[in-house]
Specification:
Elements (H helix, E strand, L loop, with lengths): L3 E4 L2 E4 L4 E7 L9 E6 L6 E6 L6 E3 L7 E6 L4 E6 L8 E7 L4 E2 L3 E6 L1
Parallel strand pairs: 2-11
Antiparallel strand pairs: 1-3, 3-8, 4-5, 4-9, 5-6, 7-8, 9-10, 9-11
Length: 114
């Protein structure tokens, strides 16, 4: 099983940036696609971005396209989520996951003030 640990969350003003990291334990990390999800208070968890195994094809929710970038460094067993031009609606707990393994991190809080 692969264990995931997120970091990099915090409090930022609208228009600011944060970079989230998702560090994975275990071997064969590069053979799995990884996704970022978020859950705001009172709302359901929603998809944010994903990166495939291998060449690392990416996909994004419409709400973050052009602002967020997902990337991976397989040598470091880490996936990143660069978030630019953050807005108050981006406030949520952000989770990384390997959905095919049902592996989820514990989440990291992102708060964007207006």
């Amino acid at each position: 099983q692969v264990q995931l640990v997120e970091s990099g969350g915090g409090l930022v003003q609208a228009g600011g940036s944060l970079r989230l990291s998702c560090a994975a334990s275990g071997r064969a990390f590069s053979t799995y696609g990884v996704g970022w999800f978020r859950q705001a208070p009172g709302k359901e968890r929603e998809f944010v971005a994903a990166i495939s195994r291998g060449v690392g094809s990416t996909s994004y929710a419409d709400s973050v396209k052009g602002r967020f970038t997902i990337s991976r460094d397989n040598a470091k067993n880490t996936v990143y989520l660069q978030m630019n031009n953050l807005q108050p609606d981006d406030t949520a707990v952000y989770y990384c996951a390997i959905v095919t393994l049902a592996s989820w991190g514990q989440g990291t809080q992102v708060t964007v003030s207006s």
